[in-house]
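#struct-pred
JK: can someone run the complex with flavin-adenine dinucleotide? inputs below
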Amino acid sequence: MNKGTVIIGAGAAGSLAALFAARAGQSVLFLDGEEEPGRKILISGGGRCNVLPATVADAAFHTSGSQPLLRRLLSAWPLEEVQAFFERDLRLPLRREKDKLFPKSQRARDVRDALVKEAIKAKALLEVSWKVAAVERTGKGFLLTATDGRQLTAERLILAAGGQSVPTTGSDGSGFALARSLGHELTPLYPALVPLLTDDEDLRALAGLSLPVRWTARAPARDGDPGRVLGTGERELLFTHRGFSGPAIMDASHFVTRDKASLHICWTERSAEDWGAALADPGSRTVHRLLRKHLPARLATTLAHRVGLEETDRLAELPRATRQDLVQALANFTLPISGHRGFAHAEVTGGGVPLAELHSKTLESRRVPGLHICGELLDAQGPIGGHNFLLAWISGRLAGQA
Ligand SMILES: Cc1cc2nc3c(=O)[nH]c(=O)nc-3n(C[C@H](O)[C@H](O)[C@H](O)COP(=O)(O)OP(=O)(O)OC[C@H]3O[C@@H](n4cnc5c(N)ncnc54)[C@H](O)[C@@H]3O)c2cc1C
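RT: done, structure tokens with the ligand placed:
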């Protein structure tokens, strides 16, 4: 079989690439290794698919490479136009929930189906259970070989095979291997948006508790220097039976997996100074009476126990050092992190093909003319809340249009 444009991966970025390439009049074949394409879309957002964020701040996105190139990529398709594409072109009404957009139907399947249907309507051909094992550059294009030995050629190739997080979806990292085999260097890969682990039983015992926190990620401390601040944020933290999760942890986790950062939590709106002042003016209250006014009771007990206090201890009788420990525990608690849940449980793969190796307007490879790369394969990632699909939609469209 000889096709004009072949797209490897019929997930988020690949479907958009197929749709826009076919609309531009290209003969398009999009392949997926799975029988059911776009499985990651199906499981996204707890089966509801958080299609987009309601607002976008460029600074929320990360790359190990060039920030200006990342900003250029993000500006290629403004959020309101992406939203209009889903609502008008795909006839998929979206509903805002706080800072996120979901399909009104609340079904991720509707998003996947609408994308694939529209691409097929534009005359793209979809072939499932076609897992690409190898790609070779030939004189005129590319020769693709499937895991079962089938072969086909392509004049142009779009690599949209996703990352390697939750590999059971079919996005198993083979796209990175294909990019490498074609001559691309990759920045180091790491699990991003991933739950973290702790060995501390008293914190695991808080499983199920969720509360808004302020977090700070700090680079490893060196020679008495506390380590520079790598990132901060304010979102919900969830205690789990294994450690920590929830949007705050997911957003901060790449600083841990990539930079070996420590995470510091302020559990309430009060700063260390506020707590210092409140604890220094104790009256006749007990530690617990004060803490429970500001914290869930279980967390208040745990934090107090961690600095050696009992429920009945009176604030007036606290030794100075204990008071300082308590302020620290309340406003700058260092999470005791023992590891992370790895790619199997990460929502996104960080690192990948450097943006500098691609032409920014077309995402065509600077190393391999005729090859375009998009989606999670790129060294770019966003926080939780629809930002990673936004990257997939924008980059898939750019590659397809080109
Ligand atoms: C549990 C979970 C929930 C998530 N929820 C959200 C959310 O609500 N909002 C959000 O913005 N992001 C979410 N994400 C992240 C988001 O799903 C991804 O960032 C996005 O799907 C990446 O798009 P992609 O097209 O690059 O890759 P994918 O959507 O993963 O698509 C890649 C496709 O390529 C196919 N493929 C892979 N290798 C080959 C090969 N060798 N040959 C042929 N086909 C191949 C795969 O089968 C797959 O269908 C979630 C991720 C997970 C794991």
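RT: quick notes.
The longest strand covers residues 229-239.
Residues 196-340 form one domain.
JK: thanks, will look after standup
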